[in-house]
Design goal:
Layout: H1 2-6, H2 10-24, H3 29-43, H4 51-61, H5 66-72, H6 81-95, H7 111-166, E1 168-169, E2 174-175
Antiparallel strand pairs: 1-2
Helix pairs in contact: 3-4, 3-5, 3-7, 4-5, 6-7
Length: about 180
């Protein structure tokens, strides 16, 4: 019974694991945030299976953290594909001055009409993905930059407090006698 009371629930344990992983990522907060921004931008595109590759490529070009970019592409996953792409398509329709797609009026036997509708659909979706991806990448950059700086600062303070509390010389890793 005593063990059960002190055991952390599974979700808190996983959150603590990802927190420590974020602290251990190599690079400056700006590099990690550029990687997150690249991954979030790539995650808003309907390129199933290629989102991670696109995120890694963008992170490399932006000199961002590639591991953070690969992880951030999972903002879109099989559970969120449909709402994300429907939203992107709606944003594209709102931004483009094209006539709205009406699937009930399409002549499904005409290949020329289907090709035109497909091109218009892809253009509308691409514009929506680019605009939403850019906005969300900026949001992801800002949030991750603040979070990484705050997390690293708090972990440095905790280490410093531990050193002071144990009165351990950090250079020699041994206890030092303090005399007054």
């Amino acid at each position: 019974m005593q063990y059960y009371l002190h055991r952390r629930p599974g979700w808190r344990r996983r959150l603590n694991y990802w927190y420590s992983r974020l602290l251990r990522l190599s690079g400056t907060p700006a590099q990690i945030s550029r990687g997150v921004a690249a991954g979030v931008f790539a995650g808003w595109f309907p390129l199933f299976g290629l989102q991670t590759i696109l995120g890694l490529l963008l992170a490399t070009l932006m000199r961002g953290n590639r591991l953070a970019a690969a992880a951030a592409t999972w903002i879109s996953n099989p559970l969120t594909y449909v709402p994300i792409y429907a939203f992107n398509f709606g944003v594209g329709q709102w931004l483009l001055p094209l006539s709205p797609l009406d699937l009930e009026q399409v002549n499904w036997t005409s290949s020329a009409e289907l090709t035109q509708m497909g091109g218009q659909f892809l253009l509308t979706l691409a514009v929506g993905c680019i605009v939403v991806g850019l906005v969300m990448a900026l949001v992801g950059y800002g949030l991750s930059y603040v979070a990484v700086r705050r997390l690293r600062r708090s972990s440095q303070l905790q280490r410093l407090q531990k050193v002071r509390r144990n009165r351990v010389n950090p250079l020699y890793k041994s206890r030092v006698k303090f005399t007054r």
